[in-house]
Amino acid sequence: MAVLVATALGLIGGGWSMPGWLRWKLACFAGVMACGVGIRLSLIGHFRTWAAMERDGPTAETNAIIRHVYVRSTAILVLLGVHCGRGDSGVLKPD
Predict the structure, then answer these.
(1) Which of 7, 64, 56 is nearest to 30 (CA)?
(2) E strand intervals along the chain
(3) In 3D, which of 34, 40, 37, 39 has the Cα closest to residue 75?
(4) Band of the pLDDT at 91, cuts 50, 70, 90?
(5) pLDDT tens profile 31-58
(6) CA distance linking residue 86 with residue 91, whole number of Å
């Protein structure tokens, strides 16, 4: 992801003849990858809580954790949708 962002900013390959729209797409793709990592990290807490609920039964605390993970994961998915709508789905392509 860092290499994609660095390439998009011209820190890597600044002398390459790469059009601006392609640099923009590389940056957006790095954002999509970051959303994927965020979703994975969010789900780790979710699975740990499910394991605790299976072992000890549901409690108010574990239910609150599940609700919190749902909200955080939904926010990441919305961010992913924004990235896809901004250019990764082919909206920003050359004429």
Answers:
(1) 7
(2) none
(3) 39
(4) low
(5) 778 878 888 887 887 888 888 889 999 8
(6) 7
